[in-house]
Amino acid sequence: MTSSSRRRAIAIAALLAAAIPALAACGAGFGANTNTPYAPNEAGVLIKDDGSGGKSYGENGVMIPQAFILGPEPGSQIAAGGSAAVYLTMLNSTGTPDTLTGIVADQQQAASAKVPAPVALEPGTLAKTPGVTVDGIKQPLRGGETLRLTLQFKNAGDISLAVPVIARSREYATLSPAPSPAATPTGDPFASLSPTGTATDATATAETGTGTESAGGAEAPPSPAAQ
User: Fold this and answer.
1) DSSP secondary structure letter of residue 224
2) Model-level pTM?
3) Residue 145 class from Cβ within 10 Å (0-12 exposed, 13-18 middle, 19+ buried)?
4) Partner of 76 for a Cys bridge, out of 72, 155, 200, 216, CB 3.0 to 4.6 A?
5) What DSSP line would sit under 1-60, residue for residue?
6) What per-residue confidence (pLDDT) applies to 30?
7) How many domains is the chain built from?
8) Range of the domain at 166
9) What is the pLDDT of residues 193-226, one digit of tens each?
10) What is the Cα–Cα distance from 74 to 54, expressed in whole angstroms?
């Protein structure tokens, strides 16, 4: 190798060393700059063998640059029966608008998935899924698990994918988890009500008040001590 070619090789290696960390940073978190489809760093979502030794990316014209379920903070867990936020970044690679109308969870892993409103997928434009949750999880989530979800599109049809659970730390620490369920009242629903005006108080007033009248209005007989 000549000195000039050696210098060129060193320069290329230095350029790659500087570029790789920058590219990795672009794919971090849910606000990543993902205008160009790439293999997601969370999992091989919709990347399949094309039958000729290569890999195909996407299904029915839909690409998923990013897909994960936000798990608990490290060392914690989302208890069975709880909910977890689902973060998806989708790209419509066709020339026709499409719509994500719903998500179905594997019934052995979760009771349901909720999409607050349909998500429009315009051709060549990234679309995200704010507010989507998977609810009634069957087993506690600690991070590292995978849940299978089926995305339902108006045109692309049903697309099933395995979505990894990512711990809520590092670049994911600022993301919002699923909202906590509203508190459900327990015990006697009338326990906090004031007893004023109840039949019991009315009787007590009639017995101890002036006039010694009973609740029925008739004069009560005098007590033995008063005779």
Assistant:
1) G
2) 0.61
3) middle
4) 72
5) --HHHHHHHHHHHHHHHHHHHHHHHHTSSTT---SS----SS--TTEEE-SSSSEEE-BT
6) 46
7) 1
8) 10-172
9) 444 444 444 444 444 444 444 444 445 555 555 4
10) 37
